[in-house]
Specification:
By secondary structure, this protein is an alpha/beta fold. The chain has six helices and eight strands, in the order αβαβββββαβαβαα. It has one domain (about 10-150): TIM Barrel (Alpha-Beta Barrel). Helix content is about 40%, strand content about 15%. The chain has a four-stranded parallel beta sheet. Strands 3-6 form a two-stranded antiparallel ribbon. β7, α4 (about 100-110) and β8 (about 115) form a beta-alpha-beta unit. α2 (about 25-35) packs across α3 (about 75-85), α3 (about 75-85) runs parallel beside α4 (about 100-110) and α4 (about 100-110) crosses α6.
Length: about 160
């Protein structure tokens, strides 16, 4: 599907959002790159479930639903790290980014950019605060270009 989409719109940048609901994200990242994607974003929501013990019914209308926000950050960080080591195209980090430190962790793991999602619901100024925090971090650390920290994780 990625190749067909890119062929239909070759001049429009194509970013493919990857699901975390896989055993290994690397072959999916590689397949997207090989099919012509310009970037990938990682990750989408995890599939979750909530059960009411008293009624023995699911709390969600359709049984399962998307889990997002801070709870998925450790999974998202791992997947961004794995994907960014696998492909040359940019990886956009998504999953539990609510503070400057969260964004920094994704950049250090290999993300070229980050997306703030759930945090915007309870703190509409989160994105601006994170952007200002990143600029302050770079100033305080003597970093002239934030790209210098991308993929700088020491394992």
């Amino acid at each position: 599907m990625t190749a067909k989409t890119k062929k239909a719109s070759p001049r429009i940048p194509l970013w493919v959002k990857l699901s975390p609901n896989v055993t290994d994200i690397r072959p999916f990242a590689r397949a997207c790159e090989d099919a012509g994607a310009d970037a990938i974003s990682a990750v989408n929501t995890l599939v979750g479930m909530a059960i009411n013990a008293k009624t023995r019914r699911t709390r969600l209308k359709y049984g399962t639903g998307g889990l997002s926000g801070p709870a998925i950050k450790p999974v998202a960080l791992r997947m961004v790290w794995e994907a960014s080591r696998e492909v040359k195209i940019p990886v956009i980090g998504i999953g539990g980014i609510a503070r400057t430190e969260d964004a920094l962790e994704f950049l250090i793991a290999g993300a070229r950019a980050v997306q703030v999602g759930t945090a915007n619901f309870y703190h509409p100024g989160a994105s601006q605060q994170i952007a200002q925090g990143l600029a302050e971090y770079c100033r305080s650390q003597g970093i002239k270009d934030i790209n210098n920290i991308v993929g700088s994780l020491r394992v």
